[in-house]
Write a structure and sequence with these properties.
With 347 residues, the chain is of the alpha/beta class. Helices cover 34% and strands 17% of the residues. It contains 13 helices and 13 strands. Bound molecules: (4S)-2,6-dioxohexahydropyrimidine-4-carboxylic acid and zinc ion (ZN). The site of (4S)-2,6-dioxohexahydropyrimidine-4-carboxylic acid (DOR) has 10 residues, from loops.
């Protein structure tokens, strides 16, 4: 018997599209399934002003596949030189929907990020007044802190103090990977949400490191032990509106992943929805996917829910997943979920 699942058309609340040939190559993988996405600003050089965000949005719109119905939601990359007036003007003009905080050096193209969190307080205060969310890459960069502990330490050292210093600031803790982060987001006062990725819901660090090192599973924050993955799955299936989908789909051409010092990022855009349907089915609650992927994000951001739908179909045999997306800069290897997927998007 064929089973189908109809969802409200989902959004991706954390996405990397890059620029140029990679942008042109990867954009159709997102526009096929998603209505909107929060687009990360970590280009080289980063998107730091309202004018740069508007220009990047126009490049995305120019690269859209024929007939696509997709709205990129732009962000600014917060630096210690960010001008609060520019942020306010870009928000007022509808150019940006969030500002992204990268601790300097935390991840790909984050060298211009923040080292002194007090220095950005005027920007954060402007954002709090305007209800403009701060999206946070939540990892400390202190070399003394083990990579597997960097998220948990960030909560105590940075996230909680920053939120206390700027009451009313709306924060999204991006791509949470630990039980600690899930608990903080669940219990914190004030407006806080968290995005969760496909890879952190489906895999733990054993998948990356046992039996050989698998560079396509290397992302930041890094995959954690299985108990953390279980906590994330519980969060995603809890029906708590603070948790919503942000794939963090992060394209790097294959040659830059399969090398002695590979880039961080999993490219999940083409198969994210099919994987999530499989995961929620395996967890016994497919009915929770609609709100996780299509309701809680827009509600947090104060945006209307999408009108359209997507339909997924379940086949008895596992489906063949795409292996790579071709771009003018080279192929990008698609994330392998490491389990059989019976779902595909069919309408
Ligand atoms: O794995 C990641 N890749 N994590 C990030 O924070 C950045 C991203 C990228 O830009 O490639
Ligand atoms: Zn990211």
């Amino acid at each position: 018997m064929t089973q189908t699942l109809t969802l409200r058309r989902p959004d991706d609340w954390h996405l990397h599209l890059r620029d140029g040939e990679v942008l042109a190559g990867v954009l159709p993988d997102t526009t096929r399934h998603f209505a909107r996405a929060i687009v990360m600003p970590n280009l080289v050089p980063p998107v730091v002003t309202g004018a740069q965000a508007a220009a990047y949005r126009d490049r995305i719109l120019a690269a859209m596949p024929e007939g696509a119905d997709f709205t990129p939601l732009m962000t600014l990359y917060l630096t210690q030189d960010t001008d609060p007036a520019d942020v306010a003007a870009a928000h007022e003009a509808g150019i940006i929907k969030a500002v992204k905080l990268y601790p300097a050096g935390a991840t790909t193209n984050s060298a211009s990020g923040v080292t002194d969190f007090d220095a950005v307080r005027p920007v954060l205060e402007t954002m709090a007044e305007r209800g403009l969310p701060l999206c946070v890459h939540g990892e400390v960069t202190d070399p003394a802190i083990d990579i597997f502990d960097r998220e948990a330490v960030f909560i105590d050292r940075v996230l909680d103090p920053v939120r206390r210093a700027t009451p009313g600031l709306k924060v999204v803790m991006e791509h949470i990977t630990t039980a600690d982060a899930a608990a903080y987001v669940r219990e914190a006062d004030g407006e806080i949400g968290a995005t969760i990725t496909v890879q952190h819901l489906m895999l733990d660090r054993n998948a990356m490191l046992v039996g050989g090192i698998r560079p396509h599973y290397y992302c930041l924050p890094i995959l954690k032990r299985g108990t953390h993955r279980e906590a994330l799955v519980a969060a995603a299936l809890s029906g708590n509106p603070r948790y919503f989908l942000g794939t963090d789909s992060a394209p790097h051409v294959t040659a830059t992943k399969e090398t002695a010092c590979g880039c961080a990022g999993c490219y999940t855009a083409p198969i994210a929805l099919a994987c999530l349907a499989q995961l929620f089915e395996d967890e016994g609650d497919l009915g929770k996917l609609d709100d996780f992927a299509g309701r809680f994000g827009p509600e947090f951001y104060g945006l209307p829910l999408n009108d359209g739908t997507v339909t997924l179909t379940r086949s008895d045999a596992p489906v063949d997943l795409p292996k790579a997306t071709e771009t003018g800069a080279g192929p990008i290897t698609v994330f392998d979920p490491g389990r059989r997927i019976h779902w595909s998007v069919t309408g």
